């Protein structure tokens, strides 16, 4: 039961959110009781570990993220009067099941993934942190298009160097739409994104390089990821006078991932030029 609860929490809520924290805490409390421990210790270990998941997600390997969660959970359990081993096991188990709900994608402008320079990264890193905070503070939107347009105007347009950033858009017409965690790989033409559960749409920026004015097509390119992940839409912000905010109708897409075919399902929402 606890295993199913951890998995469903991972599917339903974004890491670090209130729902994810409380849901993980409840599942952790039940699991700790099954291990012969205290519900409260398990709740705090799993809940605080989930609260720290935004930071833990920055660790590259799944194994490293599980170990970090175990350390946090064990430490919390020990500080609150419980056993380190119980807290570590609860948090690690929850994290391991949560990893199963994460789906990775590498959206690309079409290049091979060139890292930005160390000087550019030093300049961009604090700017990106401010963009992440700005995005995290946004409430819900009526449509995924509204959310993508907000990202186009408030994130893409604020980029000062050629770097890709992206985020998933979650929700439905009934519940409204929210933007997931903004991410970057500090690359010119690639951004690695992690979907938690099932997103509605994706959004990413091709940076300031006007050469990549369209969503990329082909195996493991923009349109392929959107359809492969069963998204409704894929939104791409591109630069230059022929760029704009492109909406790819992934849910209606059929046929090969060629430019001519993908263009039949792609609309420019914020520009004068078509596909």
Question: In words, what does this structure look like?
Answer:
- The chain has two domains: 2-100, no CATH class; 103-268, no CATH class.
- It is built from ten helices and nine strands.
- It has helices at residues 2-12, 18-34, 39-51, 53-56, 62-79, 84-99, 118-136, 144-154, 222-228, 259-263, and strands spanning 102-108, 165-172, 176-179, 183-184, 190-196, 201-205, 233-238, 244-248, 266-268.
- The radius of gyration is 20 Å and the shape is elongated.
Provide a quick synopsis of the model:
The chain has 275 residues and is of the alpha+beta class. The chain contains ten helices and nine strands.
> Which runs of at least 5 residues are low in confidence (pLDDT < 50)?
1-13
Give the H and E element order.
Answer: HHHHHHEHHEEEEEHEEHE
Number of folding domains? 2
- Got a strand count? 9
- Mean residue pLDDT: 79
Q: List the total number of helices.
A: 10
Shape call: elongated
Please tell me how large the radius of gyration is.
20 Å
Structural class: alpha+beta
Q: How widely separated are the two ends?
A: 49 Å
Q: Biggest sheet: strands, sense, closure?
A: 7 strands, mixed
Helix content range: 40-55%
- Beta-sheet strand percentage? 15-25%
Keywords:
275 residues, alpha+beta, 2 domains, 7-stranded mixed beta sheet, two-stranded antiparallel ribbon
What's the arrangement of secondary structure elements?
Blueprint: H1 2-12, H2 18-34, H3 39-51, H4 53-56, H5 62-79, H6 84-99, E1 102-108, H7 118-136, H8 144-154, E2 165-172, E3 176-179, E4 183-184, E5 190-196, E6 201-205, H9 222-228, E7 233-238, E8 244-248, H10 259-263, E9 266-268
Parallel strand pairs: 6-7
Antiparallel strand pairs: 1-5, 2-3, 2-4, 2-6, 7-8, 8-9
């Amino acid at each position: 039961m606890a295993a199913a609860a951890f998995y469903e929490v991972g599917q339903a809520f974004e890491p670090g959110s209130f729902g994810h924290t409380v849901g993980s805490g409840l599942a952790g409390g039940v699991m700790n009781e099954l291990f012969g421990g205290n519900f409260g210790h398990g709740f705090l270990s799993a809940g605080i570990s989930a609260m720290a998941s935004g930071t833990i997600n920055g660790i590259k390997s799944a194994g490293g993220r599980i170990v970090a969660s175990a350390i946090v959970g064990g430490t919390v359990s020990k500080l609150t009067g419980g056993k380190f081993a119980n807290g570590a096991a609860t948090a690690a188990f929850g994290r391991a099941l949560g990893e199963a709900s994460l789906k990775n994608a590498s959206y690309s402008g079409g290049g091979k993934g060139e890292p930005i320079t160390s000087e550019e990264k030093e300049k961009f890193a604090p700017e990106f942190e401010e963009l992440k905070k700005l995005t995290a503070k946004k409430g819900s939107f009526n449509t995924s298009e509204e959310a993508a347009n907000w990202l186009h105007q408030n994130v893409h347009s604020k980029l000062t160097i050629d770097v890709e950033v992206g985020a998933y858009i979650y929700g439905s017409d009934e519940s409204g739409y929210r933007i997931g965690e903004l991410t970057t790989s500090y690359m010119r033409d690639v951004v690695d994104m992690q979907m938690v559960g099932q997103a509605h749409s994706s959004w990413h920026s091709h940076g300031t390089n006007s050469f990549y004015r369209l969503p990329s097509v082909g195996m493991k390119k923009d349109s392929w990821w959107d359809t492969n992940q069963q998204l409704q839409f894929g939104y791409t912000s591109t630069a230059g006078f022929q760029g704009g905010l492109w909406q790819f109708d992934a849910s209606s897409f059929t046929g090969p991932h060629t430019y001519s075919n993908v263009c039949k399902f792609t609309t420019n929402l914020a520009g004068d030029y078509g596909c």
